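Long-time lurker. I teach an intro course on protein structure, and each term I like to show students one example going from raw sequence to a predicted 3D structure in token notation. This year I'd like something fresh instead of my usual example. Would anyone be willing to generate the tokens for the chain below so I can use it in lecture? Attribution to the forum is fine with me.
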Amino acid sequence: MNYLLEVGLSKKDVRSMIFRFSPLLGYSVELVMKPKLEFLLRTMKKPLKAVVEYPRYFSYSLEGKIKPRFWVLQHRNIDCSLTDMFAKNDELFAEEYLGIGGLLEKPLR
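-- Reply from a regular --
Happy to contribute to a lecture. Here you go:
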């Protein structure tokens, strides 16, 4: 968790993140945390505190979920919290932000 302290979070923030999402302790800094945090700060332009509020952000695939959802929201000029962006399953996300929730269901045979 030294990495989170090095990037500017307080010990209190890091403790809060671990308390709310303990799997954070097992994530690789180089493979998981650093690339996702850099994308959050540089591309998404979110504040560092956003990961304190939603530490589960680190659990999502950068290529499979974070980037695609960000690009959808950016294209639609929607700015929302990480919780709003990722706490919904794919169907609810599509329904709320694309208006196509039912289209993601498997057809009945």
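Some talking points for your students: Residues 36 and 82 are 12 Å apart (CA to CA). The longest helix spans residues 29-43.
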